[in-house]
């Protein structure tokens, strides 16, 4: 039985095969679809019995960026994690990807262990940005928060538990929902509040009056 459905899209066969092997090692029971175009990734996702749990896609196909299409991908597959992999390291490209709703940006220069850890973080509901040479590159991208953040009551419940220092697994147990659903809520909270960290979400929540100031367990 397959626990998750992952779509991997990259037009570089060697990298695609390497990423396939890495994901297979990380999620041995997952179903992985490997394609060489962005259009094929969408086609496979639409044809599946259920939406993919994660897209892992290259930023460039045939020399053209898909950044402008990521927003539509996010809208259509609201509950799927989106991880973009690329050799690009400029702030404009990363900002475009993250502001479009991606859950992660991974530079192809990252080591297999780094990529594995980043994918794990995304599965845990975190928003991650990896760059090859932190000291030589610009700061992490700024994600603009919604002008009037509108979190659902369930998302506020999740935010309160994040503020209590709870892990996604603990939140799932306390709320009686699946860890995957918790990841969806955490990612949505990050996007809505314009942050990429749990601590940032709590700080933003306190500033907006969504979280009591006494809840400061998250570092």
Task: Describe this structure as you would to a colleague.
The protein is α/β, with parallel strands linked by helices and 219 residues long. The protein has two domains: 5-136, Rossmann fold, CATH 3.40.50; 153-207, Arc Repressor Mutant, subunit A (Orthogonal Bundle). Helix content is 45%, strand content 14%. It has nine helices and eight strands. The chain has helices spanning 13-26, 38-47, 67-76, 91-99, 112-123, 153-163, 168-175, 179-193, 198-207, and strands spanning 5-9, 31-35, 54-58, 60-61, 64-65, 81-86, 104-107, 128-129. A six-stranded parallel β-sheet has the order 2-1-3-6-7-8, sandwiched between helices. The chain has a two-stranded antiparallel ribbon with strand order 4-5. β4 and β5 form a beta hairpin. The protein is globular, with a radius of gyration of 17 Å. The model is unreliable at 133-141 (pLDDT under 50).
For this entry, give a set of tags:
Rossmann fold, alpha/beta, NreC/VraR/RcsB-like_REC, Arc Repressor Mutant, subunit A, 2 domains, DNA-binding response regulator, 6-stranded parallel β-sheet, 219 residues, DNA-binding
């Amino acid at each position: 039985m397959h626990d998750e459905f992952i779509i991997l899209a990259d037009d570089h066969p060697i990298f695609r095969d390497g990423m396939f092997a890495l994901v297979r090692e990380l999620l041995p029971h997952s179903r992985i679809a490997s394609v060489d175009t962005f259009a094929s990734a969408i086609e496979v996702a639409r044809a599946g019995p259920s939406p993919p749990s994660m897209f892992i896609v290259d930023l460039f196909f045939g020399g053209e960026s898909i950044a402008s299409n990521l927003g539509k991908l996010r809208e259509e597959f609201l509950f799927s994690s989106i991880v973009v992999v690329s050799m690009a390291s400029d702030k404009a490209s990363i900002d475009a990807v993250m502001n479009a709703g991606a859950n992660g940006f991974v530079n192809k220069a990252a080591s297999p262990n780094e990529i594995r850890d980043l994918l794990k973080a995304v599965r845990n509901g975190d928003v991650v940005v990896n760059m090859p040479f932190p000291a030589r590159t610009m700061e992490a991208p700024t994600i603009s928060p919604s002008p009037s953040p509108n979190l659902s009551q369930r998302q506020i419940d999740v935010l309160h538990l994040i503020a209590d220092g709870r892990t996604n697994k603990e939140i799932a147990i306390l709320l009686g929902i699946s860890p995957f659903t918790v990841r969806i809520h955490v990612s949505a909270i990050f996007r809505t509040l314009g942050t990429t960290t749990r601590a940032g979400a709590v700080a933003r929540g306190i500033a907006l009056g969504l979280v009591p100031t006494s809840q400061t367990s998250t570092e």
